[in-house]
Specification:
Chains A, B, C: This is Carboxymuconolactone decarboxylase family protein. Chains A, B, C: InterPro entries: 4CMD/NDH-1_regulator (IPR052512), AhpD-like (IPR029032), CMD-like (IPR003779). Chains A, B, C: GO terms for molecular function: peroxiredoxin activity. The structure is a homotrimer of 268-residue chains. Chain A has 268 residues and is an all-alpha fold. Among the domains of chain A are: 47 residues, no CATH class; 118 residues, AhpD-like (Up-down Bundle), CATH 1.20.1290.10. Helix content of chain A is 75%, strand content 0%. Chain A has 13 helices and no strands. In chain A, helix 12 packs antiparallel against helix 13. The N and C termini of chain A lie far apart (47 Å).
């Protein structure tokens, strides 16, 4: 493959650039060309950094492309103020293999972590992308038996979070028992009990949503434990956090990695 | 009342759903129908969660509807990236009894906590809503006597925050005395001294603005103390934090509740 | 100079107001008139607060106008959700002496701290402003020798952060060595090694980006050390944090000042 995106033929680009260029040209040529064209006049260097990121981090096989785009779309949803980039990644996510239904589902999964408004805005963007691409899907409400929602939620909480989830509930018992009920019913009885994403995918989305917001270290601790519990390994957890840094910057990722290190040490 | 919003007549909806539906249909029928119509194709489940929230949390009598909408509008103002939802709640807030002047005033109250830009953007949205509804109001600058602003501010700080406010000023004395002056003059001499909202309402708005931003635990501590000081009880403080979770997600609310628990224990 | 912005001739405005008014009328008359006109109907008091801020804080000679606007543009870039105010300050920044290239460069400098999307959105706004003003600039990629990027980055990290930077790398060695490499290569090998801004300017931008986000206290600690190391004094560091409060609110600035106090005490 020739160098097709490089600004000038004579410049020796890094290996990361060349790998990123190949990936992007193979999957979403018009998308990356659009990004670089917008940057060409005032900030071609930023275009290079972006391509290098894809070559350097994105191609690491610890996580699949679809896992990485789940993380990215979740991080951008929870950041909330980057609709242009979120739209780009909804398109790119489908290019690398995410189903439209999976995109809606992972956005839905961010609701307990970063609230309804940001999820609603992300779904509006997804709807726009689907319409532009002529994609028609209809998603039904997976209405659970409301009578058993508490029971379903408690079982799911135990499955995902184990003792760390129970500790959260206990810490709320004296001060905000209604909040404990809401978390059991809504987060675990409803959201975690939905189909379409498995437990590992849900934990990747959770880590991304918490990392992107910042200041959620106690919840990151619980959910890094949960990520290991449902079968992700330590390297994959770290890799999920690394996938966030282009979108969040290094500080939030450094804080999340620091929390992960504490969890890993605690497990030994 | 018949079930007018349920997606299908045959589905047995939860009690929370039925209560929420009745509330929303009685207060803002076109608003909730618009929300649900937007969600109908790709995420009817999210529409159900929203209606259930109104039935479950919103109707709890610990806080009034107008107090809840003050909290919600403040949280959305300080989140900053959810203009669609903020506009909806400015409209809904008026439906449940907030005066346009109160909406402007509560947005003004967020300035010391989340800055001018987000408040200015919220006021622009409010202006738009008022214009669409043909509401004409004119608000005068309540210009205080600039010569006494320090004195006014110190008295108001003492009234609201008590010793906890004094401690903040003392902690700044050695390192940033100008900042201490600015907080006294601006936050307390100007903002807290304005009319239209009482001290309880101002503390509800403050708690919402701090919770929505995340990472403001030291300030939450001071202002939860202040909330109790001006006459809100512990249950109302917790309820104010719970009112935030649909907009902020659970993690920020869990961190705020954890801070509240520490304050409550410290008071005993 | 007559009082040209005051809402009513008969009102006695504060000295801060008068100083702020003079500064703003002398530098960006149409800009401040636009802001105040938008606020005149519903919130003239907020217009007064804004003018007073310029008179009170902005005119303090501890930092120059161009330094203050670098801080402001960086804070608004990293806040991410205030495009209207960011656009205003890109225009105002040029009025007080920032070159268009410096604006692009300071936005570029925020990438490692608050991510690509917010920087890309800020650059799009800058591009729009430049087009409206008929400003044509072309910026070349400062492509460093990729073979030496690690070496360049380590030297620059040592120069800026000293032992505190080394400690960050060491803390990552066991858990996320790739992240350490990325920070060395990208943050220091690329971004900090670019021309157009000097080390002091870069630290002011860094402090603003970290303060605006909140929750980045560990990184603030490292970079307040670095700010002192590259030649800013303690008063200037505090002043840089104070410059942020109109855009971020007091809580984030209080937390940053608290971190600064710890750094200052640690140095003694």
């Amino acid at each position: 493959m020739g160098r097709r995106l490089s600004p000038e033929g004579g410049i020796q680009m890094s290996d990361a650039y060349n790998k990123g260029e190949q990936l992007l040209m193979d999957t979403y040529e018009e998308g990356i060309k659009g990004v670089l064209a917008n940057l060409s006049e005032l900030s071609p260097h930023i275009g290079r950094y972006i391509v290098e990121f894809f070559g350097q981090v994105f191609t690491n096989p610890l996580l699949s492309f679809t896992q990485r785009e789940m993380i990215t779309i979740a991080a951008l949803t929870s950041l909330g103020d980057c609709p242009g980039q979120l739209k780009w990644h909804i398109q790119f996510g489908m290019k690398v293999g995410l189903a439209p239904e999976e995109i809606i589902e992972l956005i839905t999964h961010t609701i307990p972590f970063s609230g309804f408004p940001r999820a609603l805005n992300a779904i509006s963007l997804a709807k726009l992308v689907f319409e532009e691409l002529g994609i028609q899907i209809a998603i039904q409400d997976e209405l659970l038996n409301a009578g058993n929602i508490r029971e379903t939620g408690l079982a799911k909480l135990q499955e995902i979070d184990g003792e760390h989830g129970t500790q959260v509930l206990e810490s709320l018992a004296g001060v905000a028992p209604v909040l404990a009920d809401q978390i059991v019913d809504f987060t675990f009885g409803e959201i975690y009990s939905r189909s379409l994403l498995d437990a590992k995918q849900r934990q990747l989305v959770t880590l991304a949503s918490l990392t992107a917001q910042g200041g959620c270290e106690p919840q990151l601790r619980v959910h890094i434990h949960a990520a290991l519990r449902v079968g992700l390994n330590e390297q994959q957890v770290i890799e999920a956090l690394l996938q966030c840094y282009p979108y969040t910057g290094f500080p939030k990722v450094l804080n999340a990695v620091s929390t992960a290190r504490q969890v890993f040490e605690h497990q030994k």
